[in-house]
Amino acid sequence: MKRKRLPLPTHPLTKFFGPAAESVTTSLGDASVTSYRCTVRHFLTYLGAQYPAVRSLDQLRRDPHILGWLALLRSQIPPLATITRANYVIYLRCMLEELAWTQQLPALAHLLARGDVPRTEHHLPRPLTPEQDQLIQQELLRRNDLLSNTLLLLRHTGMRIGECVDLSVDCLRTLGPNQWAIHVPLGKLKTERWVPVDSMVCQLVERIRSLRPPTAPETGRLLLFRPRGRKMLVRRVRAALQEAVAAVAITARIVPHQFRHTYGTEMLRAGVGFASVMKLLGHKSPHMTMQYLEITQQDLQREFHLAMVHPRHLAPSRTVAPASPPRADLASLIDTLAGCPARSGDVPPQHCRRLTTPASRSGCPPSRQNPHRHQKTQPTSKIGKDWPVKSSSGKLRGMTRQ
Q1: Shared-domain flag, residues 160 and 274
Q2: Are strands 193-197 and 389-390 parallel, antiparallel or unpaired?
Q3: Which residues contact 327 (CB under 8 A, 6 or more apart)?
Q4: Which of 13, 119, 297, 370 has the most C-beta neighbours closer than 10 Å?
């Protein structure tokens, strides 16, 4: 059941921003449509309260209208997350560019620049510590109810909480002897995948099936029944984790998404390749996977010493055949002088014949050499008896007698 959309505010510019939001979200999902409409409500509510005189698009200016709205986003209490402010700016910028094209107002496309988008923080991976992981799992196993088993399923599969609540009843498949996999449906990145699991996860899925209420529908069934809607089920799962964390006296803030960080780091340390971890988590880029994996100094030391013991970058050493004992015969001497291999079997027969011909011993050129090398070249000038040479008597010799 789709959530009812809130109406846009009553403002003279609503007739422009409403169609612009629909235009840029034509091929996007419901969540994106809701985000764009929320941006329209926020911006037009701000304009109506601070600048009621603005009633047309050509009245919009970067200063003070856009800059004032950016300042309002930064000053809200409680403060908005950086990613939320960035999304607001990106959505409004897209709609202004759409209006600049459709309303023939090029100035609208320059009201917001790329530099107005706040930079998102780069957070380190947040896997649970071994102590926190052990205490939380023990508490969830002790409770053994529907929500606790759901949290354990998140911990041992690395799924997102939105993917977990959308699992079907028949999500567990048998691939072979002692081989199972869970089919993860389309999630945040619009991708589906198969996640290998062990017998413990199979028991968790069977336990969740057994805890389904008898009033759950038989057709189109989901693994987790949600009579009050999807969002309410997600809230219940989050609240169940907070109760378990408080029961084991952990003061740090723990959220279900940290199970995903813990699962990815655990797989990497267990020897699973980086590309396989990326596939298990359902990521599209290695950069996204690196945000989930905690690589400590101990991990680096272990990999370094492993590489030193078994260096994979070194090529295998060549095995050198033992040299044959030196020979004192004539063929060995000829091979040595000619630079040929020491073994007579490696010398081409024509070379051996050439070296042993009488012509080679007498210093004459061999008969099979290149004929062009020994062609006689005609001199350009030749000093002979006809050349006019002056003698000691002062007369020229070699000239024609008169």
Answers
A1: yes
A2: unpaired
A3: none
A4: 13
Cβ 157 vs Cβ 195: under 8 Å: yes
Please report whether residue 69 resides in a domain.
yes
Residue 355 pLDDT more than 60? no
**What is the pLDDT confidence band of residue 92, given thresholds at 50, 70 and 90?**
very high
Q: Do residue 98 and residue 228 come from a single domain?
A: no
- Spatial CB neighbours of 376, under 8 Å, sequence gap ≥ 6: none
| DSSP bridge partners of 196 | 181
177/193 Cα distance (integer angstroms): 21
- How far, CA to CA in Å, does 373 sit from each of 58, 365, 368, 369, 376? 89, 10, 11, 8, 9
Given a cut of 60, whether residue 49 has pLDDT beyond it is yes
Whether residue 160 contacts residue 188, with contact meaning beta carbons closer than 8 Å, is answered with yes
Query: How many angstroms separate the first and last alpha carbons of the chain?
Result: 131
Long-range pairs, 196-205, Cβ under 8 A, ≥24: 196/280, 197/156, 197/157, 197/172, 198/156, 200/156, 201/153, 201/156, 201/157, 201/172, 202/172, 204/149, 204/152, 204/153, 204/156, 205/153, 205/171, 205/172
Measured between alpha carbons, how far is residue 370 from residues 39, 348, 374 in Å?
A: 87, 18, 8
Q: Is 229 among the domain residues?
A: yes
- Taking residues 103-131, what's their average pLDDT? 87
Rg (CA), the chain: 42
Which residues constitute the domain of residue 105? 14-116
pLDDT digits (tens, 9 = 90+) for 222-236: 888 888 888 899 999
Are residues 267 and 149 part of one domain? yes
Q: Position of tokens 């999807």?
A: 230
Average pLDDT, the chain: 79
Domain presence at residue 68: yes
Q: Is the peptide bond before 366 cis (omega within 30 degrees of 0)?
A: no
In percent, the amount of the chain with pLDDT more than 90 equals 43
pTM for the model: 0.59
Total Cβ atoms within 10 A of residue 97: 18
Number of structural domains in the chain: 2
CATH number at residue 246: 1.10.443.10
Question: In the numeric block, which tokens belong to residue 346?
Answer: 């490696």
Residue whose token pair is 């510590």 = 129
Cβ pair 238, 256 in contact under 8 A? yes
Same structural domain, 197 and 95: no
